[in-house]
Specification:
The protein has about 170 residues and is an alpha/beta fold. The protein has a single domain, classed as Alpha-Beta Complex (Protein-Tyrosine Phosphatase, Chain A). About 45% of the residues lie in helices and about 15% in strands. It has 7 helices and 5 strands. It has a 5-stranded mixed sheet with strand order 1-2-5-3-4. Helix 1 runs parallel beside helix 6 and helix 5 runs parallel beside helix 7. The radius of gyration is 14 Å and the shape is globular. The two termini are about 25 Å apart. This is Protein-serine/threonine phosphatase.
Length: about 170
Amino acid sequence: MALLCGQDLIAHARLGVLQPRRVKLSEVALGLFLSGGASAKNLPLLREHGIAAIVNVGGGKCHFANAIVYNKIGLLDKSDANILPHLHNACDFIHNQLQSSANVLVHCMGGFSRSPTVVVAYLVKYRQLSVDDALTVCRLAHPRANPRPNFIAQLHDFQTQCASQA
């Protein structure tokens, strides 16, 4: 599958073509989904969207470990939580799964802060977006996305790390 990057991804997100209304999973980019924890417990929904891999940011139970590949982060939703050490691993996992044509779900308990942070980090690292543009793309698909201020600050640090490694 071709990966849209940069301004092409932003334009595509603005069209809303990836996001059918009234779904429990938000497709942020082709094959990359975002949700809260309830959707991650719904195997028929996961199968309907072809989810083959899950990033469990909140660290709750991995309900379908026999059928789905998991990357479990286990981060608490606190104002002093440090998500930065987990971002490269999570982004690489997402990228590798998407490259192998697997649809990926990134979730936390509510789908508001931790999981959108990971999705934004992926868009920064692999889709050549700034943090602000990645947040725009994420919010166009998943309007509830609202990473904590400390996560936004860590995303800017992550962007700097990615730029220095390029």
